[in-house]
């Protein structure tokens, strides 16, 4: 009889950008673990990850977190990383709110039920979008030559030149996406309290890297590089067309390193809710992103102003990771240039497949 696996990890959304990158890394680094990736392949391009998962020995299950039966049919696991989502900040704006609510909130609830049944640890991938739009729009910032920059004096607690910390006010609307994630965070707290489910919550800023099927409303840095290398149109939306809006970015491999630590020490990370991002040191404005993309790709795509801000947009978001840094010596190791260089290398090596999957002209 073969020895029981030391660890069976279920990754929901396991064919997506973060989920597949994590599944591949865990399968490679922990040969005695069983890594299971469940995904309904809703996201265009996720199917490109299936041969990669197969080759790495990751067991793929075509399933849907909205369907309890799909999760209940799985063998017991010791850990669940909930990476499935409809992650667009524009989700539901057209009135079709059903999918985001069911996938992001009901799906998270189903994952919690599974964790409770199997006494499994849960790592929940949340988002900086839990912070309300109106509050972020009140931040005091100055305009430098290439970006918006937070000022030392801020009108709200939890905001500083380092970025937004977890004690930033939570009152107000935050996009349907952000609301489903925050509601899921609240459910996580209930399941910890009522049923002893061990859980950690990572509130991620923008994550970027190879194999991200970037689009204008999700995965903006990859989207920018995709347009430079494969063609497409880019514009600076809102904020006077200046392109000075800023986000921090985290290389997906850095996130993988953190989640791996969380999986290796479930007790230590239980109850932690922390911002996870590149922070001020790894942040870019769109204008700066264009400059880097031009340098790395060797191509100059014209980028002009276009219209007013989209609903839910904010001029600036940077993760203040002080809480996280107080808990661990994990730090983002890859800078913004490295993120974009890695993305460019991936696009160049997979241009035809990516073009076919994303329909980029
Ligand atoms: N990428 C980012 O910048 C970012 C930032 C903050 C938080 N997050 C969070 O990280 C997680 C992973 O995001 P990502 O960037 O990999 O997104 P992604 O879209 O690449 O991956 C999500 C995967 O979930 C799958 N999925 C969607 N609905 C599903 C369902 N009902 N059942 C099963 N699978 C389903 C999709 O097919 C896709 O493969 C998400 O929870 C997202 O909210 C991402």
Descriptive overview:
The chain has 361 residues and is of the alpha/beta class. The protein has one domain (7-358): NAD(P)-binding Rossmann-like Domain (Rossmann fold, 3-Layer(aba) Sandwich), CATH 3.40.50. 38% of the residues lie in helices and 19% in strands. The protein is built from 13 helices and 17 strands. The protein has helices at 17-29, 50-55, 68-72, 98-118, 133-136, 175-195, 220-230, 252-264, 266-269, 286-297, 322-327, 336-349, 351-358; strands at residues 7-12, 33-39, 59-62, 79-82, 121-127, 141-143, 148-150, 159-160, 163-164, 199-204, 206-208, 234-237, 246-251, 273-276, 283-285, 303-306, 316-317. The longest helix is centred in the N-terminal third of the chain and has 21 residues, at 98-118. Residues 1-5 have low confidence and may be disordered. It binds nicotinamide-adenine-dinucleotide.
What's the alpha carbon Rg, rounded to whole Å? 20 Å
The helix content is: 25-40%
Structural class: alpha/beta
Give the name of the CATH superfamily: NAD(P)-binding Rossmann-like Domain
N-to-C span: 53 Å
Which consecutive residue ranges, at least 5 long each, have pLDDT under 50? Answer: 1-5
What's the total helix number? 13
Strand segment count = 17
Task: Let me know the average pLDDT.
Answer: 95
Strand content: 15-25%
CATH architecture: 3-Layer(aba) Sandwich
Note the main sheet. 7 strands, parallel
Total domain modules: 1
Question: Any idea what the shape is?
Answer: globular
| CATH topology grouping | Rossmann fold
- Identify the CATH class: Alpha Beta
């Amino acid at each position: 009889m073969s020895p029981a696996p030391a660890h069976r990890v279920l990754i929901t959304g396991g064919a997506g950008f973060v989920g597949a990158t994590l599944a591949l890394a865990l399968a490679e680094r922990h040969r005695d673990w069983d890594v299971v990736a469940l995904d309904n392949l809703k996201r265009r391009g996720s199917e490109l990850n299936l041969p990669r998962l197969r080759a790495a020995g990751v067991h793929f299950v075509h399933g849907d977190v909205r369907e309890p039966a799909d999760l209940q049919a799985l063998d017991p696991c010791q850990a669940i990383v909930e990476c499935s989502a409809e992650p667009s900040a524009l989700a539901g704006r057209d009135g079709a709110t059903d999918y985001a609510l069911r996938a992001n909130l009901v799906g998270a609830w189903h994952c919690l039920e599974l964790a409770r049944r199997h006494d499994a640890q849960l790592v929940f991938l949340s988002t900086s979008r839990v912070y309300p739009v109106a509050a972020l729009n009140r931040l005091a910032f100055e305009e430098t030559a290439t970006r918006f920059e937070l000022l030392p004096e801020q009108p709200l607690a939890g905001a500083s030149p380092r970025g937004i910390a977890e004690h930033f006010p939570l009152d107000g609307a935050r996009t349907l996406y952000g609301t489903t994630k925050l509601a899921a965070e609240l459910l996580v707290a209930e399941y910890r309290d009522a049923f002893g489910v061990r859980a950690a919550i990572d509130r991620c800023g923008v994550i970027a890297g190879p194999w991200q099927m970037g689009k204008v409303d999700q995965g903006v840095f990859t989207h920018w590089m995709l347009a430079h290398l494969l063609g497409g149109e880019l514009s600076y939306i809102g904020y006077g067309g200046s392109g000075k809006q800023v986000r921090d970015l985290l290389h997906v491999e850095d996130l993988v390193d953190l989640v791996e630590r969380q999986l290796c020490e479930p007790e230590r990370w239980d109850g932690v809710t922390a911002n996870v991002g590149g922070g001020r040191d790894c942040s870019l404005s769109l204008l700066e992103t264009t400059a880097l993309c031009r340098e790395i790709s060797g191509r100059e795509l014209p980028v002009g102003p276009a219209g007013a801000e989209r609903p839910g947009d904010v001029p600036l978001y940077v993760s203040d990771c002080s809480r996280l840094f107080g808990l661990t010596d994990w730090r983002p190791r890859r800078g913004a240039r490295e993120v974009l260089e890695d993305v460019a290398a991936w696009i160049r090596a997979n241009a035809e497949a990516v073009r076919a999957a994303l329909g980029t002209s």
